[in-house]
Amino acid sequence: MYVAVKGGERAIENAHRLLADKRRGPRDVPELTPAQIDEQLSLAVDRVMSEGSLYDRALAALAIKQARGDLIEAIFLVRAYRTTLPRFGYSHPLDTGAMQVRRRISATYKDLPGGQVLGPTFDYTHRLIDFSLMEQDAVPAPATAPHAAQTAMPRVADIIGSGDMIEASPPDEGAPVSDLTRDPLAFPAPRDLCLQNLARGDEGFLLALGYSTQRGYGRNHPFVGEIRLGEVQVEVEVEGLPFAAPLGAVTLTECQMVNQFVGSKTEAPKFTRGYGLSFGQCERRAMSMALVDRALRAGEFEEERKGPAQDEEFVLSHSDNVQATGFVEHLKLPHYVDFQAELALLREMRGENHASHPEAAE
Amino acid sequence: MSAYNFAYLDEQTKRMIRRAILKAIAVPGYQVPFASREMPMPYGWGTGGVQVTASILGPDDVLKVIDQGADDTTNAVSIRAFFAKTAGVKTTTATTEATVIQTRHRFPETNLGAHQVLVYQVPIPEPLRFLEPRETETRTLHALAEYGLMHVKLYEDIARHGHIATTYAYPVSVNGRYVMDPSPIPKYDNPRLDDCEALQLFGAGREKRIYAIPPHTKVVSLDFEDHPFEPTKFEHPCALCGSTMSYLDEVVTDDAGGRMFVCSDTDYCETRQREGHIGHLNAAAPQTCPEAAE
Amino acid sequence: MTAALAAGFARPVFDSQAAFRAAMDALSRPGAVTALITDLTPPSPLTPAAAAIALALLDFEVSFHLAPSLAGGDVGAFLRFHTGAREVDAPQEADFVLLDLAADALDLTSFKLGEAAYPDRSATVLALVETVSRSDGPALVGPGIKGRATLGVSPLPADFAAQWQLNAARYPLGVDLLFAAPAHVLGLPRSARIVEEAR
């Protein structure tokens, strides 16, 4: 005889215990520390901070540990925590021109003030599995830069801009900045809101969209004007203090993409640009973001919108992996009430079908 | 849990949601945008309903949470535990005892009273979304009360299948103005929304919309004169309580095509069994079923 | 200035919730009288119930406008201090409008009515009145009302029914009203219609 399923509470509790056990794994393998994740899986930490919209390495590392390395799950943990934090104020706009640069490359000029600095990059590594990493390995100390005092590194966009060859940065009019975590998204969305959305967007989604523009779905002729990685000071205004108070430095990756020029009979042609910014070292996402930012500006330059990357509603509505994973995975929840409604209709329709064509039905 | 506020949400978030709820009540069936927060449970798993419940809940409320009509489905258990932990409110499985009922996919079988609020979890609040994916377009259609698209879709169903092929999330017209998605409840439940004694609130967290049906509001399922709306009918009574007046789940009992039909509303079914209604497959007397009571 | 300021909610979380639930009940059931008891002693002429609803709903994300009889004194300071909401001079810019029906003129068309695509972007008017009751007033129909209800509000401007008809004609645009007597509220959302004049 049938007894309705009971004990959901106990099942959930037991599932959570089992999950904790699986996270820890065999006890004879040393347990990971958040510090190890922070220092040795630092690019995972960078991604979790970027898409989690919270600059806190230790917390991101802990989330990665808790999530068993599932980065979207870790991003979700960070986001849910972030929502509960009170807001004390807003920092001054970050000045990436004053960045303590560790890596800086330009694909548009062979050499430029400050030079090309490769920094810590996978570029030009041969992707051969390094079996020596199976063992703990003594890694030689890195080479140091020949000159201790760093020369100024003007942003490439500013170098091009000084000749009026590229569109200027929009002036800072002190207008309040949009915040999609505080206001529901409405269309059409201003560029600051688009950029915020992309900055939190799923790296894979941005990468695919950026790639699609290169293959003709909204081509925008990109050149990497510059990618720079380094530390930037965060400053806030404090009531009663005559100067902005420094809060500390954050590591950022910035990508300035130089794109398709525009012009008209009355206006001299100039390059346009796309912008990407990310916490930590996330070059792939900064570049993808810049490509998509430029693609989304199609309307501004009266370009025909024909690629998905140019479709603001499509991009902004589907970029968030916490939303996406929730809704895709919610299909796991029971749907038997709805399924039953479909079954009943299907049976009724098949019954009618059978009555009118008895020979055709099985 | 002392690190979190009563019912988890901070007060500023609650105020924002409360303002949205009041506007939703003032314009029945209209979807009010709200700044949905990231909740400690996944989007699509009831975050909208949870935010609405958290914003209306007071210390004296008694909360019931159901999913598919049942109190003991895992997500219902999880959400009920969330509020028991963060708000410390009394919870119940008895529909009549509850002041706030959060639901996914069902309207309870028991009639609701004026002292109760029903909070629906909504995945896709926009009834026109599958006909027109763009928010900018659907918003204009609502502004113009231009719902021809929906009627065309329903009529195409009839032409192809001889029936309106929508069996759940069946669109309704609210107060003669807005076409509204009643959330994925089976169309069987649609008549219950009309002239309901209780306030009905709908929360869509991922899509950031809140809407409402005040008590005693006219709610009409869309249909045609020659193809009137028909709720799903069942050929069987409930195998456990014998009810012929409830929505049934189909349970597969073996791999030889064996099936039984039981009430989807567990509280309704158990209450009936306690009152002595015994279905044809319920050989066990109610008191021999030790886990039936909480 | 703040030294003389009246205190806010003693228990902000629960007092806000109770005031909100009263407002929610009132707007869900137009014409019904909802009790709202609070410990607040707001600056005159703000009534305790009106003050409770204002403290429950206002914050830095919204603006409010005070009608002439309430403006320029302690009421504005009280609301600004406890809620952080912006006070605006122009009634048509305010998310919330507070007025005293015993002293201020009422012009419903001077408030935000919302937009066709966003009818929720409209004003909520908190009107101070002496009494709300279930009798003596125009008859109401609409969502939230079983059969008919009564708009038992005193004082009510002589042309109120005419103004309300205009408001209802703009539906789904329009303003929503909460009438606040000292310890009771009565709601009149834009969806409610007046069907006959007071006798």
Report on this model:
The complex is a heterotrimer of chains A (about 350), B (about 290) and C (about 200). Chain A contains 12 helices and 4 strands, in the order H-H-H-H-H-E-H-H-H-E-E-E-H-H-H-H. Chain A starts with 7 loop residues before the first helix and ends in a 6-residue tail after the last helix. Chain A is an alpha+beta fold and about 350 residues long. In chain A, a hairpin with a 7-residue loop joins strand 3 (about 245-260) and strand 4 (about 270-280). Chain A has helices at about 10-25, 35-40, 40-50, 55-65, 70-85, 155-160, 190-200, 205-215, 285-295, 310-320, 320-330, 335-355, and strands spanning about 100-105, 225-235, 245-260, 270-280. Chain A has 2 domains: about 10-80, no CATH class; about 95-120 and about 150-165 and about 185-325, no CATH class. In chain A, strands 1-2-3-4 form a 4-stranded antiparallel beta sheet. Chain B is α/β, with parallel strands linked by helices. Chain B has helices at about 10-25, 45-55, 75-85, 135-145, 150-160, 190-195, 265-275, and strands at about 30-35, 60-65, 90, 100-105, 115-120, 170-175, 180, 200-205, 210-215, 220, 250, 260-265. Chain B has a 7-stranded mixed beta sheet with strand order 1-9-8-5-4-2-3. A 3-stranded antiparallel beta sheet of chain B has the order 7-6-10. Chain B has a two-stranded antiparallel sheet with strand order 11-12. With about 200 residues, chain C is α/β, with parallel strands linked by helices. Chain C has 4 helices and 12 strands, in the order αβαβαβββββββαβββ. In chain C, the strands form 3 sheets. A 7-stranded mixed beta sheet of chain C has the order 1-11-10-5-4-2-3. The termini of chain C are far apart.
Strand content of chain A: 5-15%
| Shape-level CATH architecture of chain C | 3-Layer(aba) Sandwich
Q: Overall 3D geometry of chain C?
A: globular
Low-pLDDT windows of residues of chain C: none
Quaternary structure: heterotrimer
How does the overall form of chain A come out from the CA principal axes? globular
Give me the Rg of chain A, rounded. Answer: 26 Å
Structural class of chain A: alpha+beta
pLDDT averaged over residues of chain A: 90
Order of neighbouring strands in the sheet with most strands of chain C: 1-11-10-5-4-2-3
Q: Give a count of the beta strands of chain C, DSSP E runs of length 2 or more.
A: 12
Head-to-tail CA distance between termini of chain C: 47 Å
- Please list the strands of the largest sheet of chain A in the order they lie side by side: 1-2-3-4
User: For the record, what CATH class of chain C applies?
Assistant: Alpha Beta
Largest sheet of chain A: 4 strands, antiparallel
Strand content of chain C: 15-25%
Number of domains of chain A: 2
